[in-house]
Amino acid sequence: MTRTPVNVTVTGAAGQIGYALLFRIASGQLLGADVPVKLRLLEITPALKAAEGTAMELDDCAFPLLQGIDISDDPNVAFDGTNVALLVGARPRTKGMERGDLLEANGGIFKPQGKAINDHAADDIKVLVVGNPANTNALITQAAAPDVPAERFTAMTRLDHNRALTQLSKKTGVPVSEIKRLTIWGNHSATQYPDIFHATVAGKNAAEVVNDEKWLAEDFIPTVAKRGAAIIEARGASSAASAANAAIDHVHTWVNGTAEGEWTSMAIPSDGSYGVPEGLISSFPVTTKDGVYEIVQGLDVNEFSRTRIDASVKELAEEREAVRSLGLI
Prior knowledge:
Blueprint: E1 6-11, H1 16-26, E2 37-42, H2 48-61, E3 66-72, H3 75-78, E4 84-87, H4 99-120, E5 126-129, H5 134-143, E6 153-155, H6 158-172, E7 179-180, E8 183-185, E9 193-195, E10 200-201, E11 204-205, H7 206-210, H8 213-225, H9 227-235, H10 241-256, E12 264-269, E13 281-289, E14 292-295, H11 303-325
Parallel strand pairs: 1-2, 1-4, 2-3, 4-5, 5-6
Antiparallel strand pairs: 7-10, 8-9, 10-11, 12-13, 13-14
Helix pairs in contact: 1-10, 4-5, 5-11, 6-8
Enzyme class: oxidoreductase
GO biological process, one term: malate metabolic process
Function: Catalyzes the reversible oxidation of malate to oxaloacetate.
């Protein structure tokens, strides 16, 4: 194997999502079965020992594509020469914490990481923010990296996309492999909008196949939007394996491209399309090719969709103002 290894940095590497993610990256599922990787694990100092344990396990798998593992608590070291960064580690919301407190706490994590990416990452850096609030954490990271093209910073709504696929599959009795062109709009939060009006189920319009607006409004949308809370309620911990799987999907599609006639959902810096204010990191339907994504244009947005997209975008705008007032962007 003569190919130059791709440097992949994972933050929060000793956490549950990190643990579910790293072995799949090392096996080739992130970038491709012929792409060697070097892993950089970034953790807070108290978690370095746990990260070392994970690295030992990775070694013990003898993955042919894994060309090395570095562990650090210094972002400047962890992002040195990084080609792909998965920002997983974040401050979770704790009881009694106001949203402003949460944003400020995460600003203390993502702003220094953005600066380290700006100063040390490779020229072709691609960033996926997984840690919540993902869209606004991505905005903070991007603002701290003015020398990196803004479009390199994305946030994950692929988990919501995958959740929506399965709910639609269960409703229609059609396998997820036959559902295309589903879209998540807006924020990765309870305000997100999973849109089936342009989706197809076995080649037929999904909304026409479902033909049940009450189910859409009262069952499908809330189930997808609040799935994370339902999982916490059921297993006593937040989504880990499914979040890691979505992160793999997001980056693999970004790097390797969407299938002909298909699109996916990514939270990306808005260019003003569909009335989303420029600069907000909001989820859109996108196609990808040769490592570049493009927003799918020309979709008709009906009134049912418009009100829900606007509500989610309003929340994103409020979050942007909150972090601006905190001096984080």
